[in-house]
Amino acid sequence: MLSLGERLMQMINTRLPNQPRTVGGSHAAVVVFSSANPDVGDIEIYDDGEELTVLVGKFTHTHFGNYDTTLSSQERVERIAEDVVSFLEDVFADRIEFFGSHIGAGGFRRREHPRGLLSKLIFGRKTYVWSGPVRNDG
Length: 138
Description:
Elements: H1 4-15, E1 22-23, E2 31-33, E3 43-47, E4 51-56, E5 60-65, H2 73-92, E6 96-100, E7 106-110, H3 117-123, E8 127-129, E9 132-135
Antiparallel strand pairs: 1-2, 2-3, 3-4, 4-5, 6-7, 6-8, 8-9
Helix pairs in contact: 1-2
C-alpha cells in the first residue's frame, strides 16, 4: 500500500508535471512549490499519516483527510491525494484567492465566492492569487 505522500507525488507527477517543485523540502515536507511572487509565499505539503497538511503561502494552512470508515485505507489515500491535487490545480490556475496578515493569520477562498465584511475587517482587503497581488478591495 502506498503512503499518502507517495500517492500524492504520483498524482502530482501525472497531473502537474510542469509545475516547478522541490521534493522533500524543509522540515521533512513531501513537496514544496515555490511561489514566483514573494508576497504569496511557498506551498508546503506534509504527510501526517492520516492526513496531508498544506501550508498555504504566508497566509494559513489546511488539512486534507478522509475518515469514512466504509472505505478501505487505500481508497482514503486516493481520495485525500485527489483532493490535494485538485486544490493545487485550482491554486496554480489562480482560482483560489488568499488573504491575511503575512504572518500565518489569514485564509483562502475560491474566487467566485465573495469575502465577508468581517473577514475584510480582520485580515484586510488586500488579496492574492498564486501569481501575485490582485487588488485592494478584496
